[in-house]
Amino acid sequence: MSTEGVLGFVLAGTFVLYALFGGADFGGGVWDLLARGPRKARQRALIARAMGPVWEVNHIWLIVGVVLMFAGFPRAFAALSVALHVPLTLLLVGIVCRGAAFTFRAYDTRGDAVQRQWGLVFSGASVVAPLLLGMCVGAVVSGDIRVEGRVVVSGFFAPWLSPFAWAVGVFALTLFAFLAAVYLTHEAPSPELKEDFRRRALGSGALVFAAALGVLLLARTGAPRVWHGLLASPFAVALHLGTALAAVTAFVLLWTRRYAWARVAAAVQVGLIVLGWAAAQYPYLVVPDITLKAAAASPSTQRLLLAALVVGAAVVVPSIALLFRVFRPRPEEDATASTRS
Amino acid sequence: MTDLLFARAQMGLSLAFHIVFAAAGVALPVLMVLSDLKARRTGDADYRKLGQKLAKGTAILFAVGAVSGTVLSFELGLLWPDFMGQYGEVIGLPFSLEGVAFFTEAIFLGIYLYGRERVSPGMHLFSGVMVAVSGAASAFFVTLVNVFMNQPSGFVPTPNGPTDVQPLVAMFSPGWQYQTAHVLLSCYQASAFAMAGIHAFVLLRHPGSAFHRKALSVALPVACLTALLQPLVGDFSAKHVAKAQPVKLAAMEGQFETERGAPLRIGGLPDVETGTVSGALDIPHGLSILAFGDPHAEVKGLEAFPRDTWPPVAKVHVAFQVMVGTGSLMALLSLVTLVQRWRRGEWPSGRRMMRAWLVAGPLGLVALEAGWLVTEWGRQPWIVHGAMRTAEAVTPVPHLAAPFWTFTLLYLFLGAVVLFLLLHQVRDTLPGDGPRAAGHPAFGEDEAHVH
Predict the structure, then answer these.
(1) Using one digit for the tens of pLDDT, what is the confidence trace for A122-161?
(2) Which pLDDT does position B243 carry in this prediction?
(3) Domain locations in chain A as residue ranges
(4) Is B447 on the interface with A (CB under 8 A)?
(5) Which of A45, A159, B137, B392 could cysteine-pair with B444, CB 3.0–4.6 Å?
(6) Each residue of B98-136: b (16+ CB within 10 Å) or e?
(7) How far is A182 from chain B (nearest CA, A)?
């Protein structure tokens, strides 16, 4: 594989990790917004406790992706920054509001009413951000962003506001909500809370299926390249079969209340979906005008970036493993035993 | 205002806002670890409480720093797509390494903040140290990017962008050692002065508070040491600028004509139309001595350079005066404080000194912002000095007033909330308030009692 191919694969890998970790945090915000029933407060406390120590770390996968993009594929980064200026700016507002409100809620001790207000900002932004993220992905993959030389000629709105882009946005939102619900079945300390999130996981899982169907139907006219890419190679077919298998497995495991394994299956499912997106638009970074090769930095930069990635991984991966080990759920713990210092 | 000005204003606003949180993210972990070390050594509960308070402050500031930093990483492209499109590959390496350092900082901060009861005391302290080290590393790497923009190297510029790219050369562009040292010190200095100011404020109202005297004893050594080192490092940095970026030096000093034995102009307002500086206090030969170590050295004036490469002279000069002025005041106060500490064997706590430290509290941040303005305004009209003008890099997206006002309002609001929350944290430590200090339980802690 060429260097830019390896770098492109790593880029896709960071998006997989962002979906698995950062995406689930957005999903947590969605369930904070939708918390209901007799255990409403405990659902929210569980989400806050699960996210508290890790959300900033999970969020950094996005920054890694952005940095890889502008260091490794600067021309694509520049084109996307122009074409998607509006949704990316809105996404940033959402990201700022989400993170700040989540933290302020934890440290603003003026009372329940104030904490509820911060909660609303946090959860509202958690719905808007994945929607926008999905719409950006939809625009990139649709082929509606057109670039001539260094100039974006397709305008600032149409590509990300197409029906197909909207469908991808909704799909991303349901997918992240589903993922969070599955994770929370495992993290929940009591059987009642586990049941709450099991129901939510099954319900949102059905919505994921519906949204995926919507994306697929709209792809035929809205993103012809994806439509053809779906069946283009044996590799793509295997990828999609694997996704379907993981989805069914996750459903069965949820149904039979095997949460630890359901979590793994759901993560595999989401990871394969993101890889499926990457495979569908390969070798393009911005369909149909910028390929990986055309956007790639000079070979010396690419090699140094890969070296930096290896060094980075050697530092970050064991540290993350430690972080998740320290904060793995403990069955004896109630949702209320906060460990915040 | 033109779209270019709105873009510059938005970038400036985002950086000015982020810089405060970034500096706190670099320095507060050090102060927090120092408190923890003192708590371990003395077994004193006050130091432990101080470490916990600082940890809460760090948590709030780091979260806002993390999200405002995300905004910046996107804004590089959103506002300056051609800068990133052409020079992203030249300067991507330090950005990537900064990402690694930031990652490490966030991971260990998570363990430090939330894991106090889950990990051993040794592991907890180790996490704190890792936060401090990786915070410093991340500031180091990101400053390298700014060094490159000031004095780029490691590529050959062509009309179609850079060729013959050598990322490692670009990463350590000339002058990197001075600017990174200057920036790192300023982070510690600004945070330690702010912390000292807060505790001096409380001690003025509650002179007997042991907790706040101990807190001051953690902040003052860091504040005094950095404030005395900073003028030395700043001098190295200025000498480098004098050699390598003479037009920036000329703007900083309001030097319009090339002359031998140039005077040092303190204060004053440069007028580019008349080429004069009004209201400045001139010290004969001062600039030649400071910049080149020779009273008769020639200092290049602005008129030696084409007019369309001049930075905004008045702004650069005033910002530089503010930085040097506040820096000198802080160094002076630190000197007096250290002398008192040496003569009396304990950190000063008298009313006059406390008033002085209260007034000096914000000066570190003022100097930090002013110094950053000097380097950014001083580089104009270039985004990559000598290779790409800021006006060439700006995005073609219209109506940039909209995002500018959006982020302005958002950041003003966030700034106000953060200030309020930090003051709340301080209020909890006031003497005589007893258990009330706990206030409302933190989110998620009170639900236990619902069922």
Answers:
(1) 999 999 999 999 999 999 999 999 999 889 999 999 999 9
(2) 93
(3) 3-336
(4) yes
(5) A45
(6) bbbbbbbbbbbbbbbbbbbebbeeeebbbbbbbbbbbbb
(7) 21
